[in-house]
Structure to design on (658 residues):
């Protein structure tokens, strides 16, 4: 393609990057304090980000609930790595966010007295979630944002952040960003008093998560300016959702709830061996581990058996998993007669449940001045490892709104941005280098290599230092190849930047996984299968400290002296994975 | 595979799929004919938003992936 057209300049107090649930809440929060708020999205708010495809459950504390018991449940489920101050904030403020959204007409499920209907999902004991159609949630909050006359710039991807001293990492502050219109190629130089990263999770182009464009851009950009990252070692996700090796559908857990079974090639239902209580309703990482073990031990392929589910259950399911049933019909699958081959996908690194990302404090500030974060670009510190379902969306609302307020206050205190035009020009030049390149691999070719490298269970699910290090080395070769990709259109140019971001995030996640020499939450190390409360009740932090992109890794003990909920033991205990798979791998 | 068809007869060129629905920029507008067309099929992640949002039912998304799927074992 030709070199890019002349950039346009947009000045604002607060720039929000990303228009999912967290970004929209941030924009609404910021606009309460300053008139100058711009939200930029590489797609279109309301149909962008993972929120659109969220499961439709949101943690819903209400006045009168025993919040102490809720907090305790969350901290225990999160393996005590939770930031307990954040847990309290979430529970307190989520009530207000729910009231706001009810006032805005979001159709949360209510009973005939118009009280919220609250229910239990995966992993809930005393905590409760409310239900809603996720499209309608996003439609509703976006409608509110538009009412407030917040400027929204669509189909523009942020590719670089600018710093006051022109350095990466910066010892000054973040003062702006470069945007690229993915259709016209027009660059936009944003001068901003402060920035809220709300650009979403890390995922590769595996498909199935329906978030192929959420490539951890904000994690990478935040890291590059010097923001600390945390929790990256937990970023493994397993979806049991690949049907007939051809397509993916989510919503499976609802069918499992109706009694569907997972069976191996011998016709045996196998999950009861690994989780006698929850069986098929076990956490997805255990489903992934269970499937892997069956196949590794020669009992694959595996099937989903829903032949015995009665018609009246299907009538109910039709309402909640309409799309899944529709997909079966499209694919010509007879769910009442066919056994359907299923397989998990293992995505590593991937952070749909906010296991890892940019580290923010309780005001949603990163350690880099002027840079704030909310939603799944950040590590949700309410969770610890991972606590209970529904926290993610609640965190998007609470953290988004907080980030908006904090960013607006910061911008107003500091006055206008001092974006240096030279730094912006340099960033445009970097994009131009890719744009005018005529020879090199296509972006998709490199994606294919990285997905093939990181997809196997033995890399990101059953981890071992030897295999992780080998993968990191190969990833280095792929990154080298990634530096010479070509882009024939602005669309491809944006994908080239996405690829670069993901490759950096993957390198950091592998480094973090090697560093944590224990198993905890969804991080399972074959050579350290136990949970080590003696040495690892700690947060692992990665930070860029010089011009190179290699991280400095360090830990911070969880400050239990300030916290109400204490771990029951400070010794080694069997990890959750060890309990489920006593024979090991 | 993935997004397969935009029916030219049905498409009225409203641009909803182009401007708003598709998160991965698969669909673009042919401004001369005022019809949406599939520009980047390899980037379709089968979310079905376009098919769901299309007011005249002009779009068909096959459930099958166009790219190779990598299994973990």
């Amino acid at each position: 393609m030709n070199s890019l057209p002349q950039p346009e300049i947009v000045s604002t107090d607060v720039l929000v990057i990303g228009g999912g649930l967290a970004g929209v809440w941030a924009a609404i929060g910021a606009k309460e304090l300053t008139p100058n708020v711009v939200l930029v999205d590489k797609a279109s708010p309301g149909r962008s980000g993972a929120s659109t495809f969220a499961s439709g459950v949101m943690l819903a504390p209400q006045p009168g609930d025993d919040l102490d018991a809720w907090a305790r449940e969350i901290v225990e489920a999160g393996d005590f790595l939770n930031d307990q101050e954040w847990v309290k904030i979430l529970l307190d403020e989520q009530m207000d966010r729910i009231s706001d959204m009810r006032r805005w007409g979001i159709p949360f499920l209510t009973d005939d007295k118009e009280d919220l209907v609250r229910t239990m999902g995966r992993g809930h004991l005393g905590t409760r979630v409310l239900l809603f159609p996720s499209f309608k949630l996003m439609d509703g909050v976006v409608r509110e944002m538009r009412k407030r006359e917040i400027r929204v710039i669509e189909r523009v991807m942020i590719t670089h952040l600018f710093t006051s001293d022109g350095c990466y990492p910066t010892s000054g502050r973040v003062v702006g960003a470069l945007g690229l219109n993915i259709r016209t190629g027009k660059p936009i130089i944003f001068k901003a008093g402060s920035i809220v990263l709300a650009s979403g999770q890390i995922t590769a182009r595996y498909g199935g998560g329906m978030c192929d464009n959420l490539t951890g851009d904000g994690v990478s950009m935040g890291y590059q300016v010097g923001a600390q990252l945390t929790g990256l070692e937990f970023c493994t996700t397993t979806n049991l959702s690949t049907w007939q090796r051809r397509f993916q559908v989510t919503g499976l857990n609802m069918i499992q709830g109706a009694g569907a079974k997972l069976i191996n090639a011998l016709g045996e239902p196998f999950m009861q061996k690994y989780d006698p209580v929850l069986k098929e309703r076990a956490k997805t990482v255990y489903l992934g581990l269970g499937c892997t073990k069956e196949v590794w031990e020669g009992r694959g392929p595996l099937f989903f058996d829903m032949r015995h589910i009665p018609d009246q259950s299907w009538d109910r399911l039709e309402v909640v998993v309409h799309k899944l049933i529709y997909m079966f019909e499209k694919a010509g699958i007879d769910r009442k007669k066919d056994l359907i081959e299923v397989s998990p996908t293992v995505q590593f690194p991937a952070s749909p449940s906010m296991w890892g990302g940019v580290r923010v404090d309780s005001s949603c500030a990163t350690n880099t001045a002027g840079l704030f974060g909310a939603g799944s670009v950040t590590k949700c510190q309410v969770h610890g490892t991972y606590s209970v379902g529904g926290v993610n969306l609640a965190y998007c609302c609470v953290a988004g709104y907080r980030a908006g307020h904090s960013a607006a206050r910061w911008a107003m205190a500091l006055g206008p941005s001092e974006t240096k035009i030279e730094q912006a020009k340099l960033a445009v030049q970097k994009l131009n280098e890719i744009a005018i390149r005529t020879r090199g691999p296509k972006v998709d070719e490199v994606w294919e290599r990285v997905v093939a490298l990181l997809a196997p269970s033995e890399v990101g699910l059953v981890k071992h230092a030897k295999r992780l290090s080998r993968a990191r080395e190969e990833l280095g070769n792929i990154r080298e190849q990634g530096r010479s990709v070509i882009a024939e259109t602005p669309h491809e140019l944006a994908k080239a930047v996405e690829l670069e971001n993901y490759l950096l995030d993957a390198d950091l996640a592998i480094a973090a996984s090697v560093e944590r020499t224990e198993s905890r939450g969804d991080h399972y190390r074959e050579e350290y299968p136990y949970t080590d409360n003696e040495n690892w009740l700690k947060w692992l932090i990665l930070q860029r400290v010089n011009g190179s992109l290699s991280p400095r890794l360090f830990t911070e003990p969880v400050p239990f002296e300030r916290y109400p909920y204490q771990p029951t033991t400070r010794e080694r205990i069997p990890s959750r994975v060890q309990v489920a798979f006593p024979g090991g791998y | 595979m993935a997004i397969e068809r935009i029916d030219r007869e049905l498409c009225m060129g409203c641009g909803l799929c182009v401007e708003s629905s598709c998160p991965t920029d698969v669909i673009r507008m042919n401004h001369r004919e005022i019809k949406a067309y599939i520009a980047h099929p390899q980037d379709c992640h089968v979310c079905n938003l376009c098919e769901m949002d299309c007011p005249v039912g002009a779009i068909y998304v096959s459930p099958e992936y166009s790219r190779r799927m990598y299994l973990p074992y």
The interface with chain A takes residues 19-25, 28, 39-40, 42-43, 45-49, 53, 62-65, 67-73 of chain B (CB under 8 Å). The first helix of chain B runs from residue 16 to 21.
